[in-house]
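=== RUN LOG ===
request id: a7f3
mode: sequence -> structure
chains: 1
length: 328
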Amino acid sequence: MKTFRNIVATAAIMAFAATPVAGQQPDGAAYPTRPISLIMPLAVGSAGDVLGRVVAAKMSIDLGKPVVNENITGASGVIGIERMLRAPPDGYTLLGTGDNQLIYAPLFNKESRFHALKDFQPITQLAVLDWVLVANPGFPARTIAELVALAKEKPGAINFASGGLGSAQQIAMELLMARTGIKLTHVPYRGVTPGLTDVASGQVQLMFTAVSVAAPFLPDGRLRIIATAGLERSPLLPDVPTIAESGVEGFEFRTWMGLLAQSGTPPEVVKRLRAAASAAIKDPSIRSQLDAGGFVPVGNTPDEFRAVLERDYHRIAEIMRSAGIAPK
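=== RESULT ===
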């Protein structure tokens, strides 16, 4: 017969085994019980930062606990992402970032210590951002067909700006050059705005950029849009043709913003977070802000988002390899 001491000891062991580790709940049953940190490796006030903040505010209401934004920039986003990955996979430290930080930066920066396809649990792709090809108003080509013809007449004579070597702006143009067989000369800048400013002044002729980034240069005619880069016309620019419909069949280049956790995060926690994030971007008040910023809401499932990650990772890696963009 068991002694009272044996019974108490057995009960204590069973109780300890059934107690969740601090910061975790079995299958996410009681999640969340404390504030959630949302690390964003994005500059305060950037389009992605604004999107992350409005989504986090709505998620806070849905989850019943604050989702607190934490901007950690540096090394093209690598510092913030690595900080996020040092946290336990319990759903209390999340990553809100774009493909530029998650895919482009580690492919270009050989010092990065994370892999986009191995170290993260996708939660949902929040939104995609429409891109445009813009030109100085005095640039003679007004369509994609005219640009291709002009570039083939004078290979390398046309310049294009980017936000830096290996940036999304360069990758977009490398893709266009590969698909059309033209050769342009790359002029990298330290940031997108200086590049756009020089396109507007005529120092450089062309640049790919997000609609929202180009928007301040459009009303006074400092920049002219040649075409948009989505498969379908942008809701913000319904009268502007896409590159795909302008003769480069299937051409698509858009960037996105997504929500991720660490690999190993409990599935029920991921499910809870995805539901809250998806509801946030469907909220009418948030939708109006997304529309104004040129974002197209997505809210897909974790598996669908993972498929996007895999597609974009391999596509960008191949473009960089073909263009001779080596990691530094």
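=== NOTES ===
The chain has two domains: 35-128+254-322, 131-246.
The radius of gyration is 23 Å.
=== END ===
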